[in-house]
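Quick bug: L-lactate dehydrogenase output formatted oddly.
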Amino acid sequence: MAPIITTIEDLRRVAKRRVPRMFYDYCDSGSWTESTYRANEADFAAIKLRQRVAVDMTDRSLTTTMAGRPVAMPVALAPTGLTGMQHADGEILAARAAEAAGVPFTLSTMSICSIEDVAEAVTQPFWFQLYFMRDRAFNDRLIDRAKAAGCSALVLTLDLQILGQRHKDLRNGLSAPPKPTLGTALNLLTKPRWCWSMLGTRRRTFRNIVGHVEGVRDTSSISAWAADQFDPRLGWDDVQRIRDRWQGPLILKGILDVEDAEKAAATGAEALIVSNHGGRQLDGAPSSITVLPEIVDAVGSRIEVLMDGGIRSGQDVLKAVALGAKGVFIGRAFLYGLGAYGQAGVAKSLSILRQELDTTMALCGHRDIRAVDRSILRTPPVRAAAP
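Here's what came back:
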């Protein structure tokens, strides 16, 4: 009997059964002790809402804008690496589901499907995420390819100058495609649905890189190239250089401190994303939701503030909006759906979030997401969970 799916957690359980361990763990883990990864969810749960009654709850609206783009609800699909390893052609399937739901999809530099693959599969512009690499010419080519594909915003990730220590990925020997080890082979034998779907696609490695960098042709050459490419020298002058070349809406991802938020606002970027990289970079950093209010208070009048990290329900979306986020990005929430059921699973995850958001907003006495503010929260609104 097929499981009844009513929550994001239901999708997670199905994905865990269907996705090979190294790729499921890549999605469902954090760095070091995973204290920040856990806090992202726990600190949302600590926020309590004010229930209101005898309020007209008809004619509700979740429509708003994110980085100037009209959206059906304040949710965007975050850039996630290796999405096409959760399910064959994963980026294409997720982009199609996002388009149908009226929300933005963001393609990662480290995607399995290329910029061009996704552009051919959708009818609306999507967003592209850029890592700042040592190979400046490659950076420039990626930006130019994103422009040519009609991408309508560039998300520049600032918090991956050095890769966080991710123990599960190290133990699993993460690679795309999987390296032919005995342990990997035995695990793949338990995932026949995944294996069958992968046999039906040619997209099994980093197609934004292969064929676009001299000498990078296979798994070993990609690994050697990528290991040396994240640039620890990244500075704010580099951000300005990217802005000058892109010349379209720019979103800065990875802001977790007011001082950095001030610098981000000074670049003239359209938006910033309060983010700790899903708890996969600096373990021991605060959860995104705990620092969101202070960043909104500091720079919210000068730059649009978005956030990610820990979103597992529509209630979480509402809490983030109440604390000043114009919208949120979801990563794991849609990846669980993708790993479980492909495009239909991503659509289901978005449907779940939408229903939960709509119901919770109504029970808090509001009909328009644009009118939601901190008054719907009991105070104090946020208290960081113990690590």
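Actually, after a second look the formatting is fine. Residues 343-363 form the longest helix (21 residues). Closing.
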